């Protein structure tokens, strides 16, 4: 059951009753080492029911049904990752249209529940597709979904694509990676600096598709005037620091140019993965100005259980599924994330042990056997003659 934060999440509000203006742009790039792009993203105004992969900066007013921004990073080899990320975007948007856009409510809890249900629906569809197509078995995708309703962002997280909020020149991560490194950092086994250098940094613990059930991490964040949301795949966050992200976003007023500059930085750092970035800047009189008392970071959104296995107190252990990320070993869901103590290495002997080779009697040919017998008879005869001679000389010749 999700932990309930000490304070309830704020309900959507406007102050002093004006509009909330959103400027948004997204961009994706194959990177410098991959031959195809397995990332996908979408920007959707749910009030007007318009969803696009924007080719230019979009400027919209926040409506009563809200807006959604999403990044998905596919995995699974061949075309499987590309299929999974595209399916995730389509399934989540379709479910929101069917169950939220056409509804009569516009409250925060209903919005979050709709996002959560859409995420689970995407997981079911991807898992079902992989089950029906053995060549795509094990495929999956991350999903980071940010929904804006009123002055609050509501986020659903599966995997390790990230959301940052840039405010007053500082970038803070408002999602939490569902990754091995994050678990080790929380357990005190690694520092953030050590995690960045670890060979296991690409191992994730959840994704849409590999398992029939998932646990969606639900969080919320109140936005202020001048804030910028940064959604990105790990092709950016793995190569560009949050300090660099903050600098680019703060110094560049045009969100399209800022996206381009961030991708260029990731490619300059090596570009080992696909790179996807969405920037959404929030302005307008409907938002309060920033305050030093504002809390920015990972804040859970309390949502009552909807009765699915992952919401129950007791969870059935699911069969393991392998999540393959480029450059990392496979990891099984449910696998312990606490490192085992190292196995003692036996001391190396100074002299290598001798092999136990069975003694074999060499084979002797019949000719050599006959020669040996003649030699033995000759020696025996010589011995007898010598003995006779010795006896004769000793007893008779005296």
Number of domains: 1
In CATH, the architecture is: 4-Layer Sandwich
How do the helices and strands follow one another from N- to C-terminus? EEEEEHHEEEEEHHEEHHHEEEH
Q: Helical proportion?
A: 25-40%
| Global structural class | alpha+beta
Which topology does CATH recognise?
Phosphatase 2c, domain 1
| CATH classification class | Alpha Beta
CATH H-level superfamily: PPM-type phosphatase domain
Q: State the separation between the terminal residues, measured CA to CA.
A: 122 Å
Low-confidence regions: 1-7, 11-16, 311-322, 324-365
User: What share of residues are in beta strands?
Assistant: 15-25%
Number of strands: 15
- What is Rg? 36 Å
Number of helices: 8
Mean pLDDT: 81
Largest sheet: 7 strands, antiparallel
Shape: elongated
Q: Mind explaining what this structure looks like?
A:
The protein is of the alpha+beta class. The chain has a single domain, classed as PPM-type phosphatase domain (Phosphatase 2c, domain 1), CATH 3.60.40.10. The strands form 3 sheets. Strands 2, 3, 5, 6, 7, 8 and 11 form a 7-stranded antiparallel β-sheet that branches. Strands 4-1-13-12-9-10 form a 6-stranded antiparallel β-sheet. A two-stranded antiparallel ribbon has the order 14-15. A hairpin with a 2-residue loop joins β7 and β8. The termini are far apart.
């Amino acid at each position: 059951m999700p932990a309930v934060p000490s304070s309830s999440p704020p309900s959507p509000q406007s102050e002093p009753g004006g509009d909330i203006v959103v400027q948004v742009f997204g961009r994706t790039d194959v990177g410098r080492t991959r031959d195809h792009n397995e990332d996908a993203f979408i920007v959707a105004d749910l009030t007007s029911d318009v969803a696009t992969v924007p080719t230019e900066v979009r400027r919209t007013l926040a409506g009563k049904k809200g807006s959604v921004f999403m990044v998905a990073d596919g995995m699974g080899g061949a075309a499987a990752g590309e299929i999974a990320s595209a399916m995730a975007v389509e399934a989540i948007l379709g479910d929101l249209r069917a169950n939220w856009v056409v509804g009569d409510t516009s409250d925060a809890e209903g919005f979050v529940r709709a996002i959560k249900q859409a995420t689970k629906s995407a997981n079911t569809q991807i898992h079902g597709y992989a089950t029906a197509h053995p060549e795509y078995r094990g495929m999956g995708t991350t999903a980071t979904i940010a929904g804006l309703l009123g002055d609050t962002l509501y986020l659903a997280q599966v995997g390790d694509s990230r959301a940052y909020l840039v405010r007053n020149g500082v970038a803070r991560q408002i999602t939490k990676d569902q990754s091995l490194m994050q678990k080790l950092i929380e357990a005190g086994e690694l520092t953030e600096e050590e995690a960045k250098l670890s060979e296991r940094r690409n191992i994730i613990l959840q994704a849409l598709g590999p398992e029939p059930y998932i646990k969606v991490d639900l969080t919320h964040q109140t936005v202020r005037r001048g804030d910028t949301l940064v959604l990105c795949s790990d092709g950016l966050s793995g190569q560009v620091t949050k300090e660099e992200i903050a600098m680019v976003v703060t110094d560049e007023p045009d969100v399209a140019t800022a996206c381009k500059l961030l991708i260029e930085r990731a490619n300059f750092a090596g570009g080992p993965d696909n790179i996807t970035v969405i920037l959404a800047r929030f302005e307008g009189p409907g938002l309060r100005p920033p305050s030093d008392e504002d809390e920015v970071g990972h804040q859970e959104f309390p949502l009552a259980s909807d009765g699915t296995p992952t919401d129950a107190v007791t969870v059935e252990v699911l069969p393991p599924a392998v999540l393959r990320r480029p450059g990392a070993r496979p990891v099984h869901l449910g696998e312990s994330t606490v490192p085992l103590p190292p196995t003692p290495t036996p001391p190396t002997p100074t002299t290598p042990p001798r092999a136990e080779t069975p003694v074999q009697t060499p084979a002797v040919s019949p000719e050599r056997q006959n020669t040996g017998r003649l030699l033995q008879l000759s020696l025996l005869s010589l011995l007898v003659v010598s003995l006779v001679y010795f006896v004769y000389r000793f007893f008779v010749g005296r």
